[in-house]
Amino acid sequence: MKKISYTISSMMTIILVIVTLFANAQEKKLPNIVVLATGGTIAGAGASSTGSAYTSGQVKIDAMIDAVPNIRTLANLKGEQIANVGSQDMSVKVWLDLANRINELLATKDCDGIVITHGTDTQEETAYFLNLVVKSEKPVVLTGSMRPSTALSAEGPLNLYNAVAVAADPKSKGYGVMVVMNDEIHSAHNVKKMMTTPVQTFQSPEEGAIGSVIFGGVNFFHKPHGLNTVTSEFSVSGVKSLPRVDIFYGCADASPDLIDYMVKAGAKGIVIAGVGDGNMNTPTLDAIKKATAKGVAVVRASRVPIGAVLIQGEINDKEYGTISAGELNPQKARVLLMLALMKERSRDDLQKLFIEY
């Protein structure tokens, strides 16, 4: 009996070793995804599950990952806390920290993709900035939520699950930086926050979403617009700050002295959130002409949420020294102009960038 008992015990040990080795082999086959956290509503918490008041950045990234069922079946996950702020407090410093950490991670064989948790208010700006300065074709995906973690029907866990699914999918290489929210995949170039609080706030009104992700099932529709990541000329390696660029909001009877103040305050560039097709009143145009004569770069975008600003439209760009933002909204036009002004460029050179990117 002892011999039989020892034999069964030995067999069980062998089976256990084989199962363990198989499980480890399966785990090694999963892609390695790093989740970089910056705070935001997805990490927020409130006193009430149905109230609108909450505080951003209350849940750390490891706890957030562990709270999502089955997420570790998608990838080997590692979390890092880069920042912990509401996205209204996002800064150039955090952008640079993020970009440099992403480039460092993606340059290794141990990282197959990046997911970034981020507040929604400035998510499109961070996404577009990274789209211009990340130097890899590996997937970089931003996600967040419109409801804090304590809210009834908080969508953060599913958004994070889907973001990891996109970052872990081999098909996602070469799409530039993406935003995954509400079952949709958007390119950083096109995505815009269109509503204040609904979960379907992120949309790409000009060109549409580039794909969908339903409970982790990834499907791409088309490639994104413009140069990005490995085809982008911009680099922030070793960069500690970016040139100051301000935004002027156009309206009826706008005060041109605000333009003069921006120039005096040291702005190297100004983006006009113009009315209609990037237009502005005559006094503001006169102030702009003086600013461009002093070497300040001025870009015409629009406060209208959908549509492109035409080159040489109602305003003679060559006469006033202005540049058309094309499809970029004012906040993204500011991002591109900040990067473009890291070196000296002519007005024509800047206009070319706004066409290409």
Summarize it.
With 357 residues, this protein is of the alpha/beta class. Helix content is 33%, strand content 19%.
Unreliable stretches: 16-22
Tell me the name of the CATH class of the largest domain: Alpha Beta
* Strands in their spatial order, largest beta sheet: 2-1-3-4-5-6-9-10
Overall geometric form: globular
Secondary structure tally: strands: 14
CATH topology of the largest domain: the name is: Rossmann fold
Task: Describe the model.
This protein has 357 residues and is of the alpha/beta class. It has 2 domains: 31-231, 3-Layer(aba) Sandwich (Rossmann fold); 245-356, Rossmann fold (3-Layer(aba) Sandwich). The chain contains 10 helices and 14 strands. The strands form 3 sheets. The protein has an 8-stranded mixed beta sheet, with helices on both faces. It has a 4-stranded parallel beta sheet with strand order 11-12-13-14, sandwiched between helices. A two-stranded antiparallel ribbon has the order 7-8. β7 and β8 form a beta hairpin. α4 (123-133) packs parallel to α9 (330-340) and α6 (257-264) runs parallel beside α7. It is globular, with a radius of gyration of 24 Å.
